[in-house]
Amino acid sequence: MSAVTPLKRTAIIVTDLRRSLKFYRDVLGMNVWVQGKAGRELPALFRLLGAPPCTTRWVILQSEDVDWGMVGLFELSKPAPPLDRHRSRKRANRGEACLVFHTPDVEAIHRGAVKLGVEILCPPTLLELTAHGVVSKEMTLRDPNGVLVNFIQNIKGGSVGISNKFPGLRRAPVKKRRSGASSRGRSG
Known about the structure:
single chain; 188 residues; alpha+beta; 2,3-Dihydroxybiphenyl 1,2-Dioxygenase, domain 1; 3 helices; 15% helix; globular
């Protein structure tokens, strides 16, 4: 059994939220699922990105009304991450994608990551988005290849719902074939 859901969304640290939104919403036709803005009053948010205290604006977009495989746009300002050619492994970088998974047990993911020795940007941290009635426990790390990965354990779903488990299709049991049986129908 997998410890995480299928990929929830890819989060992108953008240089210009308006321009990025025009591409994903206006060009690709994605819908705005949820959006917000937070500053120093929500330190868990910039800690999850490995950033210093800053202002974060975000828009999460979805295709149709599916809340899986979404795209999250995050703009950091006041201060913005530097535009440099040498990316930092200690924080989110502009233009960098972040894989986002939901999990029913973020602490177990943390223990496994520590045991593996991967770089933890932010250990399990409580994040409360009061405007949306959402409470989650989240953590961010870099996978062994340096890819930014965020894990979310919903505690209270508020206006966006609980997504710790994938509500997808259940697989039908695989029928065993008898030896020598043809998989094709008979011709007549």
